[in-house]
Fold:
Amino acid sequence: MSGPSRLVVLAGPTAVGKGTVAAAVRAEHPEVWISVSATTRAPRPGEVDGVHYHFVDDAAFDRLVADGQMLEWAVVHGTHRYGTPRGPVEEALAAGRPAMLEIDLQGARQVRATMPEALFVFLAPPSWDELVRRLVGRGTETAEERERRLATARLELAAEPEFDTTIVNHEVRAAAAELVALFGLPAADATRRD
Structure:
């Protein structure tokens, strides 16, 4: 691949499976560069700093913002800040790598303002009931946090028309395959030699 690559921005409501779909893409297509967001929230069980997120305190996040080192950032669910460090994104694109951001709606809107040439993909749940089931099934939030996330999800779902295309996450591998196709990469099964 030569020259700058196109950036794909994946967004959607809380608990829709953005991280799971991104992980499936990474597992089958390691050539796709996927950004690691910074966040002020504490790690969930099993999350590794620098792999799942860059876990930083409020002061460090403030410095990143003040120094212009964030491509986008937002307060999510009214509690913690999340953002995408600018440098690694620009480096991946300049190297011609297929690149993806897995971010929230607020972040996607900020990226659209600065990088309108990116492809914006909305990851949707099969239904509202399924989204609620996934959020409750994670068991990582308190009842109060779940209610806050569900209120945010209603607003996020209404933003689907702002995106270039939608992928419905019925099943993770199928959603990941649709996403990979948008990069113009071969399907994972076509590259396997069993």
